[in-house]
Here is the input.
Amino acid sequence: MKKICILLTFIFVSMFLHAQDHVIHGVVHTLDKIPLIGAEIKVKSTKQSVFTDSLGNFTAFCNSEDKLKVVAKGFYNQNVKIAGSTKVVAVNLNLKPGEKQREYAIGYGYVSEEDRTNALAGVNTDYTSFSKYSDIYDLIRGQLAGVQIKNGEIIIRGDRSFQGSSAALIVVDGVIWDSETLRTLSPIQVKSIDAIKDGAAAVYGSRGANGVILIETLKGGEEIK
Here is the structure.
């Protein structure tokens, strides 16, 4: 009886190991081209997880018939069915709607600094230089090369619309502001300012189609250098 149990155990282990010899290579992106770093890939059969590298790539071991679940905070999960012929998978995760979810992806660590700063221009840390500007628009005009101020609007990508507005979306400390509210912000309150466009701006959906001005202000306790 003991020998039978040992034999059955050996057969079971052999079958399990053989079942897990299917290797899947994959890549996880968002916005079709920006790799997600540290996205979690869960293998249904083993309950084990692997994570994407700095290029969004991963390798997972699974059954020949299995399912992968791709998870990243702030993004919709995606399930991927694995068949015996599947060798490579490409996954594109969509950002969830809502202001919290749409906060810049780098806040979750999933997007590299290089992709985050798909920026036309950006300035920060040298707070002393900001004090010489009379208002926030003067600061933007003076510091962000390629950014224009026209009729009170901030233009990043040029006048592309004959009827609609070409104004960039304004986001201050994660909150969307309008141009009139922006006028109330003093340059000496600004910690950093970036002008972004294209794939990085798409994190903000259609409202970011004309680019985004991202402003971070000094918080309590922070001082001008």
